[in-house]
Amino acid sequence: MQCSASRAMTKSARSLPPSPKKTKNSSSKHMLNIRPLTTADKQQAREIWELRFHDSLSFIDWFFAERFSPETSFCAEKDGRIISILHGCVMQLRVSGVILPAMMISGVATLPGYEGQGLMKRVLFALFEECKRRNIPLAFHKPSHFSIYRAVGEFPCYDALFHTRENEPDIPVVWDAMPDIQTLLRVYELATAHYSGCVVRSLSDMEKRMHDLTCDGTRFLLHQTGGIADGYLFASVAEDGLLYCEEALATSQTGYAAMIARLPKGSVVKLPPDVPLSGSLRPWGVMIPVDVPRLLRALCGKADVFRLEVIDGMMPWNTGVFDGAGNRTDKPATDTLSAGRLMQFLCGYLPFQEAFSQEICNCADEY
Q1: What is Dmax (Cα atoms) for the chain?
Q2: Which strands form 335-338's sheet, in the order they lie side by side?
Q3: Chain CA centroid to CA 12, Å
Q4: Which pTM was predicted?
Q5: What span, in angstroms and rounded, lies between the C-alpha atoms of 238 and 115?
Q6: In the beta sheet, which residues pair with residue 288?
């Protein structure tokens, strides 16, 4: 099981050392240990990332310098070797106008020879237990394959629009100088304020994200209106030699159009789903309800709107009948939903009766 890392639109495993073969002396006594990472695991975790993900060494350097968080990352270890791993990082999401702590999941990988044994499900469960201990009510990530994660009850909660530049610009692109982080953060806040599911960035978060987006070289465009910055775009060179723009945000349609018009033909730009440009709209990320009662209280709060039977095959504490304010009840349920489907309604990705209205869901962050 794998989840994508930054900027690589597809992932492929490189050649790996063979998994240990059973011998006559092999025994089932070899213990499997599910545990949080420690700082001592950093080198082994990095080696797994290099083996399993097709990312640049500069990105991997950035991730393990600025994003590696062993206390919220977990692994399955056998005979002293990490065989399955995921990375967690605490952030904040704005969901339907409510700011909530959330765990971003990335670098999900199981080594060849160990797939199909339920290891990643156990590692994920350990992370969700840690979320529960820390009072973090939801998690989110960008899956490499949605079909894999449907098996553990996860469903799309936000989309992205991919626009391909069809014409050459009037003049060859000349990259702009990047302004200060405060200016970029202001544009980010204005451009994403109306989305459900977007990361709430601090100045430090914004600075880390800029380091991520520029670790392979700075290719940056700025849009201004009346001398005030109101749009930006970061680009990198993809495997096919064309430009891929992972983060492009503006406060107006004019800003998006003006920046994209400066890009060379064939450039692919990832955009929020409501930008009125042609392209391919794709499911792009999931949100996972870790604490259903708390999310119901925060995002609905009306006890009498329904009595919902929630079924969660991953986190048993989420299973039960709840009213709209998140209270457990012995009264008969009016509706039944899986926890994953409920999350689609809670964040506004899909409407549910009169309790949850549909919203535009988008998250710019991915690692």
Answers
A1: 76
A2: 320-323, 307-311, 335-338
A3: 19
A4: 0.90
A5: 29
A6: 139
Cα 65 to Cα 69: distance, rounded to the nearest angstrom: 10
Domains defined along the chain, listed by start: 1-7+32-367 (3.40.630.30)
Strands (E), the chain: 32-36, 74-78, 81-95, 98-110, 138-141, 156-164, 198-199, 220-225, 228-237, 243-250, 268-271, 280-289, 307-311, 320-323, 335-338
Q: Which residue has the tokens 């929020």?
A: 272
Q: Each residue of 279-321: pLDDT tens digit?
A: 999 999 999 999 999 999 999 999 999 999 999 999 999 999 9
Confidence of residue 145 (pLDDT cuts 50, 70, 90): confident
CB atoms within 10 A of CB 198: 24
Amino acid identity, position 46 = R
| C-alpha separations of 98 from 10, 200, 295, 300, 340 in Å | 32, 11, 10, 11, 19
Q: What's the rounded Cα separation, in Å, for the pair 309 and 266?
A: 48
As beta bridge partners, residue 118 has: none
Q: pLDDT-derived band of residue 149, with 50, 70 and 90 as boundaries? A: confident
Annotate 199-239 with three-state secondary structure: ECCCHHHHHHHHHHHHCCCCCEEEEEECCEEEEEEEEEECC
Which of 267, 247, 237, 243 is CA-nearest to residue 163?
Answer: 267
What residue type is 118 in one-letter code?
A: G
Alpha-carbon dihedral angle through residues 169, 175, 181, 185, given to the nearest 10 degrees: 0
| b/e burial code for range 31-51 (CB count within 10 A of at least 16 → b) | eeebebbeeebeebbbebbee
